[in-house]
Amino acid sequence: MREAAPPPEEIDRILSALADPTRRRMVDMLREGPRRAGDLAAAFAISGPAVSRHLRVLRENDLIEESREAGDARARLYSLRAQPFTELQGWLEEVAAFWTVQLGAFKAHAEKKPRRGKRK
Amino acid sequence: MREAAPPPEEIDRILSALADPTRRRMVDMLREGPRRAGDLAAAFAISGPAVSRHLRVLRENDLIEESREAGDARARLYSLRAQPFTELQGWLEEVAAFWTVQLGAFKAHAEKKPRRGKRK
DNA sequence: GATATATTTAACATCTTGATTATATATTAG
DNA sequence: CTAATATATAATCAAGATGTTAAATATATC
After folding, report:
1. What's the pTM?
2. CA distance B15 to B10
3. What is the pLDDT of residues B14-59, one digit of tens each?
4. Structural domain contains residue A97
5. How many domains does chain B have?
């Protein structure tokens, strides 16, 4: 059976979590593997608490998950979760389906009514 | 040659344009084809000017483009543009590349330390 | 040409977001 | 036990986003 499309609010949440540039870059950093909160903080020119809040937003929206570092339980490790990104990909595919159709329609249209135009 | 990855700021702009639920739903509506500003406005419980501003944000970030309706030049038609969505897909693919790797690592790990677990 | 229609722009109020500093919590090191 | 480290939460503030109503612009209709 086909996997159920996630409720729209879930896509909304994922998108708003990703909408902030700092959080976007955090995701980019985490692509290479789990990172300590401090490592992430060091990469940005904002205060620790600010970083912490961004991480919270990402965590509360399930984009990342938290764990404790092996040797030192003070440090928290953050790592990406696949699910939300997969869901977003799903939505984008649905959106992308449209130009398959639209391009077909446009082509048909262009053939019938080929006005010389600024294609811009 | 491989297509150049878009600058990160461009992905940021696309994401923030999509971060608002109303705009997200507008995109969903436009998936089915071009729509008049008024048609879009009718679909939401907010004032016309509010809709107009959302459309402006989408347009300024190149998610949609504006044209005039054939029979009635008062009406403006909005339609989706493919490019930003394609770029976003590109970024998501880069992100997704990580669990190919991570899952491999996890699998290796799981094989060494196979605790019977709730697979979630 | 006067009026109605479709939509945008302007001006403004308000809610939300992200940043900061100070403080709290937990854990490791001495 | 005490001090240092890693990080989070609290309180506060400024900036930005979004919504509203009123006015402007452009086009169509009578």
Report:
1. 0.82
2. 9
3. 999 999 999 999 999 999 999 999 999 999 999 999 999 999 999 9
4. yes
5. 1
